[in-house]
Amino acid sequence: MKTSPPQTEQPPDWPMKWQIKALLKDFKYVRDLSFYLLARKGISQKPSVRLYEEGEVSPDYDRPLCFFCSYDEGSIVRKNVYHYLDQLKLAGFNIIFISSSEAVSDTDLKKLSKCCVRIINRENKGYDFYGWKTGLEKYAQYKAHAGLLLVNDSVLGPLFSIRDIIPRLENCDADIVGMTDSFHVCPHLQSYFLYCKKDVVLSEEFSGFFKEVDVLELKVAVIRRYEMGFSRLLRHRFRLSALYGLEPVLARVEYHQRPLAWVEPTFHLWKPLIAEFKFPFLKKSLLTRKGVSLEEVSAVLAESGSPYNLDILDDWITPDRRKRTPQL
To answer: CB 3.0–4.6 Å: which of 116, 171, 226, 246 could bond 129 by disulfide?
Structure first.
């Protein structure tokens, strides 16, 4: 049974304030999407595949498969990404690495080959959902694997061991399991980590969804049409659940600044998620866009007992970012 978040006394203008915000966001979305669709009309959008290479890891169909989408503006596979890949491999996943960077260097190709079944480099169009679509098209054997994990490198971690993650995912009574969920616009699983059990992967709904995935360069459209749309479509037949569901987390923490539908768990609740719930990931955008300092992250990791060493970020994080102060 779901636990409702604690009720708090709210200011009289609370409902109206958030209703107006929702209407304004909807209006902005429709406006921006209309301009975007008009601008792209008649342009061929399908991204090209520059590289498709076998890795040294042989496919093991008794293991679940992971499609790992990655992008780096410097065309470098950073140490934090290798850490994530190594932990996924240790956990028992076969990995398809899907890069949308300008290129994959020979050095990185050699290193990736040691932990991946296949390495793909594609043109940077369509965000991660088109990257996963490319994986499905290029590696048809995905249907033979025990399950399918869709992830990207928008997070740092794992901050804690995930060696038992496959049993946790498989033993969950849902068919599609995410790390976190959101109630913004409509209830949905957040797409940086989505595990689909085999019945889902073999379903017409799953293949039909990805068949309709198109190249969209408007990020908010990708979120609404594909991240939210995936949950909205698949929940008609399958059960969806998050390992760190928003309602159970809110029931145990003091957070009453906004209605449920406007809480972004990986932004607003990142501290209690890590310190109290041993949540294994930290959104990179907390550092790149939200102004959270490494010192603050380090303090939360110390409180949580995480073994994650922030020195792993020294090839990714800029010196000026190390000096920023938290703004959340």
So the answer is: 226
Q: HSE-up of 266 (CA within 13 Å, CB side)?
A: 22
- Asked if 40 contacts 34 with a C-beta cutoff of 8 angstroms, the reply is no
Ramachandran angles phi, psi of 256, nearest 5°: -135, 30
Query: 259's torsion region: left (phi>0), alpha (psi -120 to 50) or beta?
Result: beta
- pTM for this model (two decimals): 0.90
3-class secondary structure, 134: helix
DSSP bridge pairs for 139? none
Output the six-digit token pair for 277: 């719930």
Distance CA 291, CA 89 (A): 32
H-assigned helices in the chain:
14-40, 79-91, 106-113, 127-138, 165-171, 198-201, 204-211, 219-222, 228-234, 246-250, 265-268, 270-277, 285-288, 294-304, 319-322
Burial class (CB in 10 A: 0-12, 13-18, 19+), 185: middle
